[in-house]
Amino acid sequence: MTDDPSRPAHPDRWDVKKLVILRTLSERGTVTATARALQMTPSAVSQQLTNFAKQLGVPLLEAQGRRVRLTDAAHLVLRHGEAVFAQLERADAELAAHLRGESGTVRVAAFSTAVPALVVPAVRALRADRPGITVRVREAEAAQAYELLAAGDVDLALSLAAHAPTARDARFTRVPLLADPLDVALPAGHPLAGKPGLRLADLAGEPWIFGGSGPWSEITTTACEAAGFVPEQAHSAAGWTAILAMVEAGMGVALVPRMAAARRDGVVMCALGADRPVRHVVAAVRRGAEEGAAVRCVLDALTVQQN
To answer: Which residues contact 48 (CB under 8 A, 6 or more apart)?
Structure first.
């Protein structure tokens, strides 16, 4: 019993391998030549085309003397088959581009200062060099970023190394990106603003501005204590805009990561000398994902965005 050709199309009826055999027969003219071209036996060619005709519910071949010829239905099938082959060629090309890292979507979670300093420049570079790669950015601090990464909601997470998973966490692979120096923000006209080889210990008696709690408070107090003093916290602020505004007003000094520094006329950013503290920025991916070509391209673009 043959299938009703008027029924809705079903993918099981359309066999790409058999379409190739039918197209080759159309090009070569005989079953023997088709079998030779496809490295099959003539009986296998005939059997495959007979089965294809049963699947489609239409005759594909008819006898013409000692040879066979394609029916009108077979030519109709081939017209549609050419569209299938063209689409498969496009799929092959896109897949090859994806494997070469020329296309794909990479979802990135990054902390606030890393977005303008690292991620945005990397996206601009990728637009020029790898326009087929799409980067989707989500601002998130470390705890949320690694939750998103573990859940598969992002492909790559940026954080400070101090807040990244350890090497013992088998879920993730850490990739070092850069060491971000911490500079001192001083009010313009401060007597130490032009001092060569300024050290953190030189500022032990200054009023300090930093957050009341959280990572930046820890970074400032740890750096100052390593330099031999406990900083006097004159004012508390979490955002860099507020901190630099207070520095500009002469209300105190602050440690500012170079990535986060914004130019202000009344603030002088001073690089520290031998005891200059740094914070390390890392990326993390789910273990094994670093082998993905698109993810690797994004990691490479992030790595070159050094300050």
So the answer is: 17, 18, 21, 40
> Using CA atoms, how far apart are residues 58 and 31, in angstroms rounded to an integer?
19
Neighbours of 75 (CB within 10 A): 12
104-110 and 156-160 beta bridge pairing: parallel
pTM: 0.65
Report the alpha-carbon distance of residue 229 to residue 220 in Å, rounded.
11
Q: How far apart are CA 169 and CA 149, in angstroms?
A: 13
Reported residue count of the chain is 307
Tokens of 89: 């060629």
- List, for residues 114-168, the tens digit of each pLDDT value: 999 999 999 999 999 889 899 999 999 999 999 999 888 999 999 998 888 887 8
Burial track 220-235 (b if 16+ CB lie within 10 A, e otherwise): bbebbeebeeebebeb
CA geometry: angle 58, 59, 64, nearest 5 deg: 165
Phi, then psi, of 278 in degrees rounded to 5: -135, 160
For position 170, what pLDDT does the model report?
A: 80
* CA distances to 118, 215, 253, 291 from 147, in Å: 21, 18, 35, 21
% of the chain surpassing 90 pLDDT: 43
**Nearest partner of 51 among 99, 11, 89, 18, judged by Cα:** 18
Return the closest-CA partner of residue 256 out of 194, 159, 182, 203.
182
DSSP string covering 235-273: E--SSHHHHHHHHHTTS-BEEEETTT----TTEEEE---
* Chain segment 293-303, per-residue pLDDT in tens: 888 889 999 98
Number of separate helices (H) and strands (E) present in the chain:
10, 11
